């Protein structure tokens, strides 16, 4: 079976990343389209509901903000374009009460706010499977290595280990000087924001193996190419991989044990949003893509296709590029609008093969592999806590995601299973089920894992990320200081904007 039914308030089949029939609900792709749609729908008679705060988006950021506001006695309405909650988290039903995540899934040390929310909702965690040897396939050579060794998950490429370690040490030292809440104020911000990560890497990694290792880690974090991303933004992202007591590092971004991939959630990460939404009840409205937000007379009016909602404030939790597709009256400032034009989303296709059992474990393998075998350069064992069924997960990221996203499902399936078989043997070619999710094709996400910034954006427009536009406030993981781009960053942003509104509402 080659699909992935999602768990949630409703169920749908995921193939190629979009729900069947979703085209009719796609957000307008430009300012003219947004204005035309909003104008046409505004002429229709529609019911109006009121609340103190209208939240746009029922992912972790929006639901966290709503819970905080409701707890303080404010009335809230949460509007969600999709037919489900959870944003970039999504569970696929495997049957028998088991699920696997086709969106964001991992949690690790210093992601304290996400862990606190999960604990409050009684969602437990379990460790990512890491027992046994890891696999490296590089330039035609196949070998295994010990994950418990001094290098951890860094593949033992002879001409690259020392080179990559030296480059990462330099990056960590630079990142330590970047303030997470205002990276544009770093002493060397202009210099670093005037070049790409690729430019820096070419000058500082001296071997092909060293560059391969750093690039492998980079693409697994950003789902983009080093040439796409500002060096300053990359350094900020590393600095953000910590908390108020712990300095962020590149290793914490890429590591499993002690890093961002250390643990998973029992029942899948979307379960957190499902439980939070259940507590909010009828305050959460699904199938309600927001077309227009108007400010007038000390209030906001938020317009969807079927209804309008009036409140004292609005909170928009969408990634900047999607937030820019809403029609605003009056128009946003030029600086804010320019920001939304300059924050593209990463490109990733998350692929998984399901087997009767995790056969690689019997071969003494952890299910973790790195390599230069297209299209999948990175895999994990993604099996449920009890190890049944066995699941291998892989990622098609950055340029590979752009190229392979244009192929058919059958072509991707064949390519993915060839990668898995190269890493783990011929049994990997015969799964009982194949799942994939192209987040770039998802109409209300248009990419993952994060909206990243090319050169010049942070220093010129970064101040607009969190600056309110009148009665419109901004949240979402892209607005977070710590753990920007992660579930923890989304939760932190919801807490921040909730406190912002409670302090000034």
From TrEMBL:
**Signal peptide range:** 1-33
Pfam families assigned to the protein according to its UniProt record, in alphabetical order: Amino_oxidase (PF01593)
Q: Does the keyword Disulfide bond apply?
A: no
Q: Which UniProt keywords apply?
A: Oxidoreductase, Signal
Domain named Amine oxidase: residues: 60-501
Cofactor names from the entry are:
FAD
Homology family = Belongs to the flavin monoamine oxidase family.
PANTHER family with a match to the protein in the record:
AMINE OXIDASE, AMINE OXIDASE [FLAVIN-CONTAINING] B
The name of this protein is Flavin monoamine oxidase family protein
Q: Which organism is it from?
A: Paraconexibacter antarcticus
